[in-house]
Amino acid sequence: MKFLIFAFFGGVHLLSLCSGKAICKNGISKRTFEEIKEEIASCGDVAKAIINLAVYGKAQNRSYERLALLVDTVGPRLSGSKNLEKAIQIMYQNLQQDGLEKVHLEPVRIPHWERGEESAVMLEPRIHKIAILGLGSSIGTPPEGITAEVLVVTSFDELQRRASEARGKIVVYNQPYINYSRTVQYRTQGAVEAAKVGALASLIRSVASFSIYRLYWSVDIWTAGMLGRVPWMMAVEPLYHGKHSHLLKILGCVQRGLCGWCSGLQKNKVNISNYSLVMESDAGTFLPTGLQFTGSEKARAIMEEVMSLLQPLNITQVLSHGEGTDINFWIQAGVPGASLLDDLYKYFFFHHSHGDTMTVMDPKQMNVAAAVWAVVSYVVADMEEMLPRS
Ligand SMILES: *[C@@H]1O[C@H](CO)[C@@H](O)[C@H](O)[C@H]1NC(C)=O
Ligand SMILES: *[C@@H]1O[C@H](CO)[C@@H](O)[C@H](O)[C@H]1NC(C)=O
Ligand SMILES: *[C@@H]1O[C@H](CO)[C@@H](O)[C@H](O)[C@H]1NC(C)=O
Ligand SMILES: *[C@@H]1O[C@H](CO)[C@@H](O)[C@H](O)[C@H]1NC(C)=O
Ligand SMILES: *[C@@H]1O[C@H](CO)[C@@H](O)[C@H](O)[C@H]1NC(C)=O
């Protein structure tokens, strides 16, 4: 459930453009905030048209349907996989059919990890199959698997206290769920800590606020470094800032926070001065409540005006912390960044689990998320000047 810049622009070409007055641009702002405000306000009709298109009109359910097509026909799309390549081809065709210009793909190199067969069975006190999901980048077991006694701990502290008992065992972390940022350390560090005290392998309870039946699995040290290197990733589309040009760059990286890495590789080809805004919806596409934003105070004030165009949907909040795993590289380099703020009530029930299926998604909520993304990206791209940086 991680979509990066999931905005669709179908139909946008039919719309009239905002009526901002042309002002010569040379990188230095010539405009007062009042003028910018006026320019954004002039996009009210465009914003309404986009909202109508996405939520009530011809594009209703389009993001849901396209995602369903990917999920039904392609399946899981881990970085570097054949499935991802198929998905990229589908998106590529979709964008071309939508009439976007200069649609093209760019090859990049990324770490590549494949999920093999995976299973776990409790042998004593009775035979019991355990639902597991390998953490991406886990090292596989030997072909015969690993059979060992289990040491269950609820925290790293407990593991330290009982370090002498851990040697040769499978450490199972039964950590309570506090919140994602706190509890995810068992996913990222659990195997390393278990290896340090001589354990053979580790399992973690899923990092979920609610879970009916699942565990995560990780053998030895969680590392992205030791994997086969395979070209690919990223369907990338133009364009830069400028009136009448709309940027839609889709980074297909997702999953293991690798996009910073991908972007790093891309940086020699991409002039970040040309990007007005990077956006990510790392936390799903449920019912949006606003936008999280990171950028200069001037840029924030402008984003507040842009979001006011979403008044018809009552989604106008601009909060802090626009960072997202896959856009942080850009933000650190000075590009303003925005993340979709949506209803997270159910998000961590399904996050990174086999339970993450289309049944979790609601077409009506996705329509609203698509409208928010489309209005923001359209208006920001169409403004005379780029968002001011710090
Ligand atoms: C969109 O999905 C909703 C909910 O499933 C459904 O009621 C509606 O008819 C769909 N609209 C279109 C145009 O398919
Ligand atoms: C997560 O929980 C920890 C410990 O209670 C707390 O310090 C931290 O602020 C929480 N983080 C979030 C994002 O709520
Ligand atoms: C960035 O924009 C400038 C000015 O519009 C243009 O000359 C340059 O080619 C662009 N850079 C890239 C990498 O596209
Ligand atoms: C990057 O783009 C900026 C603004 O468009 C331009 O001034 C600068 O010369 C460009 N740098 C490179 C290396 O292309
Ligand atoms: C509009 O959104 C705000 C903040 O999200 C909420 O408190 C308010 O109840 C909403 N108003 C309506 C009419 O839905």
Give the helix proportion (percent range). Answer: 25-40%
The outline comes out as: elongated
Could you name the CATH topology of the largest domain?
A: Aminopeptidase
**Class by alpha and beta content:** alpha/beta
| Distinct ligands | 2-acetamido-2-deoxy-beta-D-glucopyranose
Q: CATH superfamily membership of the largest domain, which one?
A: Zn peptidases
N-to-C span: 32 Å
Characterize the biggest β-sheet.
5 strands, mixed
Strand order of the largest sheet: 4-8-7-6-5
Mean pLDDT: 80
Total domain units: 2
Radius of gyration: 23 Å
> Judging by the overall fold, what is the CATH architecture of the largest domain?
3-Layer(aba) Sandwich
Order of helices and strands: HHHHEEEEEHHEHHEEEHEEHEHEHH
Q: What is the tally of beta strands?
A: 13
Low-confidence stretches: 1-16, 21-26, 220-247, 253-258
User: What is the CATH first-level class name of the largest domain?
Assistant: Alpha Beta
Strand fraction: 5-15%
Describe the protein:
With 390 residues, the chain is an alpha/beta fold. It has two domains: 12-109 and 230-382, 3-Layer(aba) Sandwich (Aminopeptidase); 120-218, Glucose Oxidase, domain 1, CATH 3.50.30.30. It is built from 13 helices and 13 strands. The chain is elongated, with a radius of gyration of 23 Å. One 2-acetamido-2-deoxy-beta-D-glucopyranose (NAG) binds next to helix 13. One 2-acetamido-2-deoxy-beta-D-glucopyranose is lined by residues 289, 314.
